[in-house]
Design brief:
Length: 567
């Protein structure tokens, strides 16, 4: 009876939730164990600057991604011009370029003696950087601009979906009452899409909080950068834990702000799906080309420029020195760690989602929600928590092995890559759990009842009914998890085993040393891998799918926006 009731799946979901929550519990405990006066020292020296820079960065990026994402979404939704269909999916391309790669490329492109400024000086008749130079990209303004031109697609995806699913009756009624097309945007379309804008902004801000490479390269001392330098440079684990706890407070504030902005979501989400949408306004050829050029600016800055630079630098590097000797081992380590984390993430995410289906109630719902909290936390926070937990386990195991058997076990977790797989799993479990839940939601409960009536167990029903019907959602989730693991930099920097490099850490190390040409091949490989989910998003986010209701225009919770679009 216990096997048939699915109690084992509820236990598995509970264990998964505890494993995800454990790093946060350890982080809070370690922060409270800090030495006397440490909080006072942090409040007087590190936190004021880090908190100020973090808030300025979040404010600037949030406002700019809202403008870029909403503006481009309305551009391709409300107007018909040459190249619009190409622009619709091209606006997604910056998602394929991680923020630290954009910072690394533009540091070299816009260097005072780089090709851009040299060309400008030649045109203007100057001979040296002392006579003329552009403002330094290594600044808060530069960081805000670069992050916004990479992260605006989060707002673009959700807002465009909302625009496309708004019923034509509202627009037609407004036009009948004499409202201009411009006023339709400000008084009808934008208010209805406000929850979608809030979701996209929140996701962009989460990515900003998780960033460590771009902020450090561009000289912005955020809370995330402070955690890394406090732990790595000063070996101060209690101090890093307390800064990480402060960062969690900022994360909670962002989530609360997003929930507040979506408090009227029922009104916005109540728009008809699959009905007639308002017609796009046809414009003249000259205006259409101007609109196309305007829409291509974010694509050129966020994707085309970095991609061309990386391809050129990688080709030059291979041409004069060949492929770096450790490149294959770096690729192998990246694929191995990311694949292991993907398999584990899919298994645990499926357990959490399936338990919520077959054992609905408070316990399974709580376990599912706890399993997805890692997506809202920066990688540095999870990594610091795991250093505390797994470091204590490794020390205890080594002590017991020495006392009982006279042998040393060494670093079982922290030295083997298992800690990094754990971090990837905790960080991206929301993607697999949400993807599985979305797939299961499309399967009628009647199939479960028929299977159980025929004597099948809960596990057998999953294997023979649910998995075959959810394989598309699982495949999409696996792709997203794998690519996110490949791109993840903060957790990888803190938890990778000694003498093990991934593509992300190799790029970070070479860029930190200023050897940009050595890092170009790894950066290009990351961008090419990251293009895969962008292609997926462009297909499932097609206009036909959105208007038929195949893609939910508004996610139901912050951590699951990606899998809702996949669903």
């Amino acid at each position: 009876m216990r096997r048939r009731s699915g109690a084992a799946w509820l236990v598995a979901a509970g264990v998964t939730a505890f494993a995800v929550a454990l790093p946060f519990l350890a982080l809070a405990y370690e922060a409270m164990q800090g030495s006397d006066g440490l909080w006072a020292h942090l409040f007087s020296t590190i936190l004021p600057v880090a908190l100020r820079d973090t808030l300025i960065l979040l404010t600037g990026v949030g406002l700019l991604v809202a403008v870029l994402g909403t503006g481009t979404a309305w551009l391709v939704t409300a107007y018909d011009f040459p190249g619009r269909r190409t622009l619709e999916w091209a606006l997604l391309l910056p998602l394929a370029v991680p923020t630290y790669i954009v910072a690394y490329t533009y540091l070299d492109i816009l260097h005072p003696i780089g090709v851009v400024q040299d060309t400008l000086r030649t045109i203007l008749g100057y001979s040296s950087p002392r006579e003329f130079r552009l403002p330094d990209i290594r600044s808060m303004t530069g960081c805000i601009l670069l992050l916004a031109f990479v992260l605006y697609p989060y707002v673009y995806i959700a807002t465009r979906a909302m625009f496309l699913t708004q019923p034509a009756s509202l627009i037609e009624a407004a036009r009948t009452l004499g409202v201009s097309r411009r006023a339709v945007f400000w008084r009808i379309a934008l208010p209805l899409a406000r929850p979608a804008v809030a979701v996209g902004m929140s996701l962009a801000l989460m990515e900003t909080l998780n960033d460590i490479g771009a902020a450090e390269f561009l000289g912005v001392r955020t809370l995330t950068v402070s955690i890394y330098t406090t732990w790595i440079t000063r070996s101060d684990l209690p101090g890093a834990s307390q800064i990480a706890l402060s960062l969690l407070v900022v994360v909670v504030a962002v989530v609360a702000l997003e929930q507040y902005a979506r408090r009227r979501q029922r009104f916005a989400a109540g728009a008809q799906r699959g009905g007639k949408s308002f017609e796009r306004q046809r414009v003249s050829t000259s205006i259409g080309l101007a609109l196309l050029a305007l829409g291509l600016i974010p694509v050129l800055i966020g994707f085309v420029g970095p991609a061309l630079y990386l391809a050129t630098e990688a080709w030059a590097r291979i041409g004069y020195a060949g492929v770096p000797p450790r490149f294959l081992s770096t690729v192998s380590a990246t694929i191995l760690l990311s694949a292991a984390a993907t398999v584990l993430t899919l298994a645990l995410g499926a357990a959490a989602a399936y338990a919520a289906r077959i054992r609905p109630g408070g316990l399974s719902a709580t376990a599912f929600r706890l399993s997805t909290i890692g997506y809202a936390a920066p990688g540095t926070v999870i990594a610091i928590g795991l250093v505390i937990v797994l470091g204590a386990f490794d020390r205890t195991a080594n002590t017991l092995a020495n006392s009982w058997f006279g042998v040393s076990t060494g670093l079982i977790f922290l030295g083997s890559g298992a800690a990094l797989v754990y971090a990837y799993t905790a960080r991206f479990l929301a993607i697999s759990a949400g993807g599985m839940a979305a797939g299961l939601s499309r399967i009628p409960q009647s199939l479960d009842e028929v299977s159980r009536t025929l004597g099948e167990t809960a596990s057998g029903t999953l294997r023979r009914v649910h998995l075959p019907l959810s394989k598309t959602a699982l495949a999409a989730s696996a792709l997203l998890v794998f690519v996110d693991c490949v791109k993840e930099l903060p957790a990888t920097l803190l938890l990778r085993p000694l003498n093990v490099e991934t593509l992300a850490t190799h790029l970070y190390g070479e860029a930190a040393r200023g050897t940009y040409e050595e890092a170009s091949i790894s950066a290009l490989a990351i961008v090419l891998i990251a293009l895969l989910p962008v292609v997926l998003l462009s297909r499932v986010g097609s206009e036909r799918n959105l208007r038929q209701g195949d893609v939910a225009p508004l996610p139901q919770s912050l951590p699951s926006v990606q899998q809702h679009h996949v669903a």
